[in-house]
Amino acid sequence: MADFIRFFIPFYFILFFIISFVGISYKVAKKIGKNPNVLPKGDSAYALVGIYFKMILLALFVYTMLLLCFPEDISEMFKIHLLEHNFLQYTGIIVMIIALVWVIMAQLQMKSSWRIGVDTTTKTELITHGLFRFSRNPIFLGMTVSLAGFFLVLPTAFAFSFLLIGSILMQIQIRLEEEYLIKEHGQMYLAYKKRVQRMLSLY
């Protein structure tokens, strides 16, 4: 199991990044004629969130590469032994795979409305069908669940830090996007907001 995890985690996050960031960015860019990455630059609070996102992604990449190269040292560093159980690890693997499929489905359902950040220069369609019937932010939900699965697979303080910091940054980003969507779509978004929960509606 240890050898499988050593290779699974780096491969998973590399695949996640290639498909969910690079691949979808290229596909949407061809449709709209510009880069869908619209995270702002500068020293604003919003720009700072984008910088922290990039830093956490870089740290996650470095951590998973270290796990691949030095599996025994990294996997045992700050391990939470209370959560070290085969059942939890298998559950985490399944959760991570489901989360990846969920994110890809949500991105495809957004079509040309998908962006990294808030696009204030182009009016985009408000997507409310598909997975967006159950969550106003299915992509962020999938990313959060993916990090939770990662923590189950490798219960270390580092994996928990990625889950905690990543979740906080995503919640900040969600609220920034909600402010824009209210301005952009008005009552249509407010009605959608009442009908569907921010992360997951179970009814």
Describe this protein with a few key phrases.
203 residues; mainly alpha; Four Helix Bundle (Hemerythrin (Met), subunit A); 7 helices; 69% helix; Phopholipid_MeTrfase; methyltransferase; transmembrane helix; transmembrane; Protein-S-isoprenylcysteine O-methyltransferase Ste14
Summarize it:
The protein has helices spanning 2-32, 45-69, 71-76, 86-110, 138-153, 157-185, 187-195. With 203 residues, it is an all-alpha fold.
Fraction of residues in helix = 55-70%
Average per-residue pLDDT, rounded, comes to 95
Global structural class = mainly alpha
CATH C-level category: Mainly Alpha
Instruction: Tell me the Rg in angstroms.
Output: 18 Å
The tally of beta strands, per DSSP, is 0
CATH architecture: Up-down Bundle
Strand content of the residues, in percent? under 5%
Describe this structure in words.
- The chain is mainly alpha-helical.
- The chain has a single domain (2-195), classed as Four Helix Bundle (Hemerythrin (Met), subunit A).
- 69% of the residues lie in helices and 0% in strands.
- It is built from seven helices and no strands.
- It has helices at 2-32, 45-69, 71-76, 86-110, 138-153, 157-185, 187-195.
